[in-house]
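[Primary structure, fold]
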Amino acid sequence: MNVVVVESPAKAKTINKYLGSDYTVLASFGHVRDLPAKDGSVKPDEDFEMAWEVDTASAKRVKAIADAVRESDRLILATDPDREGEAISWHLLEALQKRRVLKDVVIQRVAFNAITKPAILEAMAHPRAVDMELVNAYLARRALDYLVGFTLSPVLWRKLPGSRSAGRVQSVALRLICDRELDIEKFRAEEYWSVDAEITANSDPFRAKLVTLDGKKLQKLSIKDRASANAAVEAINAADLSITGVEAKPAKRNPPPPFTTSTLQQEAARKLGFSATRTMQTAQKLYEGVTLGGETTGLITYMRTDGVSMAPEAISQARDVIGKEHGSLYVPGAPRMYSTKAKNAQEAHEAIRPTSFSRLPEKLSLDPDMARLYQLIWRRAVASQMESARFERTTVDIATPDSKTALRAVGTVQLFDGFLALYQEGRDDEEDEGENRLPKLSQGASAKVGKTWADQHFTQPPPRFTEASLVKRMEELGIGRPSTYASTLQVLRDRDYVQMDKNRFHPLDKGRVVIAFLENFFARYVEYDFTAALETQLDKVSAGELDWKQLLRDFWTDFRAAVDEIGELRITNVLDALNEALAPHIFPDKEDGSDPRLCPSCGEGTLSLRLGKFGAFLGCSNHPDCSFTRQMSPPGDDDVQGDRVICVHPETGKDVELKNGRFGWYLQMQLDGEDKPKRSSIPKGWDAATLTEEQAIKLIDLPRTVGEHPDDGQPITANIGRYGPYVHHDKTYANIGSVEDVFEIGVNRAISVIADKRANGGRRGGSASALKDLGEHDGKPVKIMSGRYGPYVKYEKINATLPKDTDPESVTLEQAMEWVEAKAAKGGKKKAPAKKKAPAKKKTAAKKTTTKKAPAKKPAAKKTAASKAKAE
């Protein structure tokens, strides 16, 4: 009997059919071991010994594999054909060796690039040993990421409350986003003008652009204002022009290579609107396959690759398809061969391509995402073997006899579409690919000017990164690996360091503070060149050219020293550095030239960063005498500048103030006899800059009494809460459509909304609804639920209430698990008091209880140590 181990159960089922009854194919479900998420899992003082852990679910799978191996004489490790797959095979061998089941068992490693019967049988015929050089590269990368994360993150927690984590690649990707935002903030638009003219030269009219004026060649910004543009138009109208040159040149455009992991992510983002994660999840399904003719078959080759080449038989298939579908003119004389130019590329695998080019996209029945991505992959791979597109580019020069005034027209005509008949590569800055035909012109012909155009333009700031452009930039710099880009970008979103707006990355204040801190105190470790050089060293490990532990020793020596140096740094030093680093963002220059750091409230204090449990904000140096605060992000040109009195309340005669706090704009009114002022937040969708007196009075008067309920005479009120607008009666809170409804809803509709809420489980027995899915912890879901008494975190059987005034949308998985662990430690409402008293009693009577309790503790400690040793 032969035991084959693959990663996924879908693969296991398919491969078992291909191999037959002499083989038992089992799934490992990915990694069977991992580093525990706690300090000490990598031990630099013990030559980087790593403490691996098998969780409960993986232990069951390892046991099932071990039981099968006991009854067999050959173990075939068929995990994915990349560094991660090699590591999974190694982990499995280590786990099985601890179970002592590998004696007299032949161990083989096979790798296949596609889940098709020929590919798998070919791989089974050529087994090899586990590639320990790839495993060592994995171990080095895993240890580096762990050491950076678990050493640097605690520094952030101490020095920057509200920050979540830092990572070796994650932080550099965040720096790219923040640097781009800084460039945008520093950018100052410049005005410039372009001047065109309609020309005829015994021909149909055509449009030409002014390129020379007063004998000087014009650059983009040469004409800076309307007066200069008008002068240029006059010069054209007064000029004696003729055709001084007509030049037609052939041009061609070659097809792009088939997809790698990163180019697939980029193109799927541009053309399909897919995130990197969605692309990889869909590609995984295409790789694992669908049922065709009663047999599961993989539709594409392995989707984690740097290679751009295709197997000779695949190229031959593609050329056959091109001939059948498009004709012989579209088949080039010789097959096209590609090589990658990306840094640190490993071309051991083929590019991403269809497993069979004869499976035309339109003939397959797939779910929408799979169908769109398969079509993209199929077209790109086929187009890579098609003939080039051919063009004719014509340039016409029009000038005066002395050449002091000159215009130019450029026309491009497509002569043969070639690969463009099937595929055109997307671009972040889409260009007009349309034809611009010019009439037939003769050199020396007199040219006459018809219409003229003087168009105003302004220079544009650099664009924010999309997923496609960020992945492309990371690849160009050699940062990270294509297989990890999706998870890296997702971490930045999960940590609330960035947010997506119109598919572009916008850094949030929390992310900008983290990067400013790292650039000031750990500059080397967020440098692009340093991170890329580290990737090169990791690739040398995988090539057997560098010892992986030597790499770790060199890195750890300098990194540990840098961390120790920061350990004694005072918070005031940190804030001073951040104030200076973030000044262009948080203290932009004012148009009137006044001090941008002067407190707008007291007019005397200086604004400075402060750190709170929810992150950084700005406060006045005269605190507590001056309580002015605002968020880090400065008000825009059209926003409210500082706090102000917006109106006087017509009934109370008190000022209604508009203020900006760390959580945004709000209204405040101090009433006589009240210790605290009455406050009301500006709701979403309302602009503080354009808030009217009428709106301010409506908001500050909330809650609004709608009327009395006919059943009990108790009031029904309308208000805006943390979760939006609602109506309230007795103990029932029912959400309503919009903020405007709060001020307009009548009694009848309010009664109906409340009745619906109660009928659907509003007061009793109602099922809680999920407000946010935070992901998984130890393989189990963590969610924020909407409960009777407010939002709470649900994990297994533990429900942990969110702290007061916490926005559920801002909660991260790490925060949620801290609250869950705190709730679990209390053991529930009834047990909490007992647990609090126990430590106090033990402390007071320490001498009396030591003798009795010590024996109970020692066996427990031994049991834990024994079980830990067994697990390892």
The chain has a mean pLDDT of 85. The chain has 24 helices and 32 strands. Residues 124 and 155 are 50 Å apart (CA to CA). The first strand starts at residue 2 and ends at 6.
